[in-house]
Amino acid sequence: MSRTPSPTAQDFVPFATAALDFHSALNVPGGPLVTSRAELDALHSHLVSLYGLLDAHAVRVGQLLPAEGDHLRAARTRVWQVADHLHAAYHAAPRPDPGEVPDREACRAGLPEGAPELTICQRHQRTAHLVRRRTTPADLHTPFTGLIRH
Fold first, then answer.
1. Model-level pTM?
2. CA distances to 30, 50, 93, 144 from 78, in Å
3. How many helices (H) and strands (E) does the chain have?
4. What is the tens place of the pLDDT at every residue in 5-51?
5. DSSP assignment letter at 96
6. Measured between alpha carbons, how far is 72 from 76 in angstroms, rounded to an integer?
7. Count of alpha carbons within 13 Å of 106, Cβ hemisphere only?
8. How does residue 137 score in pLDDT terms, banded at 50, 70 and 90?
């Protein structure tokens, strides 16, 4: 089994990175001071996709090269932590209509604020299910990644 992709395989990750850089250059310096809920939702979606990519790599590589797998699993965990903070930021962000900030229990219901175009809670709960299967609570709360293999 080769560890390198075939030369004909498409690598879209650089395009995703370039798109984020382009978005940031166009929208952040001259944009509004407060991040919109729609942008937080889009960023969360991006991170959940990145989590899935790292998860796939960690599972495959970890069986062949345990040390590299450890690093990929740690990266996957940190990406989830960032996504979890983005989810919290989304609920703390200003809403178009005044209302209470929903708690985590309300999020488990799906779309606690009723906005069908913003699916952050559904996406977050689907990914949280996978996170619970792949990591331990200690992994999620430790400041140390636990990497000791060389």
1. 0.78
2. 30, 11, 22, 11
3. 6, 0
4. 565 557 899 999 999 999 888 888 777 778 888 899 999 999 999 99
5. S
6. 6
7. 11
8. confident
